[in-house]
Design a protein that fits this description.
- The protein has 13 helices and 6 strands.
- The chain has a 6-stranded mixed sheet, with helices on both faces.
- A hairpin with a 2-residue loop joins strand 5 and strand 6.
- The protein is α/β, with parallel strands linked by helices.
- It is globular.
- Helix 1 runs antiparallel to helix 8, helix 4 runs antiparallel to helix 9 and helix 9 crosses helix 10.
- The site of uracil (URA) has 11 residues, from loops.
């Protein structure tokens, strides 16, 4: 059995969908090999890689002065600005802000809601139970959190009692997330849950509406799916997340193919 199938079984998936259409020799197909993107480590080089549509989506959103300033920060200044931020009430009870983690030249950006108790203690997103499930979700599509993946949240400070951040808190924190998108310049964004969808897409429709829609942030394709914490409480929804992740992988692979056809440019 392939590792992917073992991981899915561990996640509690049944692989009925794949069996409906069995490959000839009864084995599961191998996940596509995710080709490496050309390394472009400098922040300005990464931004240069953003197409015009994504740049204009970002600049349209960076309208006020604070947002406009954040939109110019490099990684070091951005991390400091997040750690020192006092722009909303969430700073009062945090142990520390949780900027994000992963590969700063990632192809894949995953966005969650906000840090919980464990993330607040460690300063890293998705380290609790939901994080373990997220790691399994990543592994199911051949990804690891430290390789070509960046993980961020809609809000960088823990809402007390793990409540959902308010629309205002997300709006105040949004410039940080937008700057992370600009610096990472990912090829695909996966939004985990309603808060992430609201923060990035400014869309508060239900996930049942957004999940299967062809969405984008500028020219970066976006896939919306359920948050891992929701899945922990609603196990039957895992099949839908698997569907969404497969769609994300297909979209990524298509963009990879067209980049390779164009001669390997990002
Ligand atoms: N849930 C989130 O949305 N983000 C985290 O970092 C942890 C749990």
């Amino acid at each position: 059995m392939y590792k992917e199938a073992a991981i899915l079984q561990e996640m509690g998936y049944t692989l009925w969908q794949l069996r409906q259409n069995p490959p000839e020799h009864g084995e599961l197909p191998k996940p596509p090999v995710l080709a490496e993107k050309i390394p472009m480590p400098e922040a300005h080089a990464l931004e240069a890689a953003l197409d015009g549509a994504t740049k204009s989506a970002l600049s349209g959103l960076a309208s006020d002065k604070r947002a406009a300033t954040i939109a110019t920060l490099d990684w070091t200044a951005l991390t400091e600005a997040i750690q020192d931020c006092r722009a909303c009430g969430l700073c009062a009870r945090r142990r520390q802000a949780v900027p994000g983690i992963g590969d700063r030249t990632a192809n894949w950006l995953f966005v969650g809601e906000g840090p919980g108790v464990e993330e607040d203690a460690k300063g890293e997103p998705f380290v609790g139970q939901a994080g373990k499930l997220l790691d399994n979700m990543l592994a199911a599509i051949g990804l690891r959190r430290d390789h070509k993946v960046y993980i961020a949240n809609a809000v960088k400070c823990r809402p007390e009692g793990n409540r959902t951040p308010t629309a205002e808190e997300m709006t105040v924190c949004r410039p940080f997330l937008l700057r992370q998108i600009a610096l990472v310049a990912p090829r695909l964004i996966v939004l985990l849950g309603k808060s992430a969808a609201y923060s990035v897409l400014d869309d508060d429709r239900n996930l049942s509406v957004l999940r299967k829609k062809p969405l984008s942030f500028g020219a970066i394709p976006v896939v919306v799916t359920y948050h891992p914490a929701y899945l922990l409480r609603n196990l039957p929804e895992k099949a839908k997340v698997w569907e969404d992740l497969c769609r994300a992988r297909e979209i990524f692979q298509e963009s990879e193919n067209s980049i390779l056809a164009e001669g390997g440019k990002k």
